[in-house]
Structures are given as C-alpha cells and as structure tokens.
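Anyone up for a design puzzle?
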C-alpha cells in the first residue's frame, strides 16, 4: 500500500505446500505478517507419481535414481504422511558401516 510500510504479495502455491504456511510465515516474521489464502484454481500435476526411468535413453538422461525429485510423488507422500497412511520410502539409501579406531596401547 502506497505511503505505508504495508505491502501485498500475490502468489500461487499448491494447496499441499500451503499447510502450516500461516504459522510458519508468522514465526519467520515475528508475527508481523498476516497471510490470507484464497482458492484461485486447480491444476493437474501431469507427472506420474510412480514413474521410474526404464528405457536406456531415460537412464542416460535421468540416471539410475532419477536425481530430480518427482513432485507428484512428493505431494502424494506428504498427504499420506499427514493422514497417517503407509509410505513406501527408503530412509537410508547409501549407508556405510561406521568403523571405530582402536586405541594404541
């Protein structure tokens, strides 16, 4: 707003990313920000949440683990986690056994 220290930010964020947005924004701004979330539109996420690279060309382009994160799978897992449903995810992918050094006597 012109002539004051107040300003308006207009943005589009997915509903799943707006969970806890208000409390997090107030925490980061020490209570100075007042968010107002209004539904604008819906949009289909055009990525298959269960997609994995299979063809040789996909493996060359994305790698074995497809380093870029699948947003549809992330959204689906976030919703399932919030609802307390089972999620099929690996906690440790490349772990190594810890070695302890023995003291010289």
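Challenge accepted. My sequence:
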């Amino acid at each position: 707003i012109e002539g004051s220290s107040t300003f308006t930010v207009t943005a589009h964020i997915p509903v799943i990313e707006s969970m806890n947005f208000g409390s997090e924004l107030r925490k980061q701004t020490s209570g100075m920000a007042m968010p107002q979330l209004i539904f604008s539109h819906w949009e289909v996420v055009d990525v298959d949440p269960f997609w994995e690279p299979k063809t040789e060309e996909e493996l060359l382009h994305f790698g074995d683990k497809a380093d870029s994160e699948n947003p549809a799978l992330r959204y689906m897992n976030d919703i399932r986690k919030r609802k307390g449903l089972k999620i099929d995810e690996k906690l440790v992918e490349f772990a190594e056994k810890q070695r302890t050094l023995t003291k010289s006597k």
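A detail worth pointing out: The radius of gyration is 22 Å.
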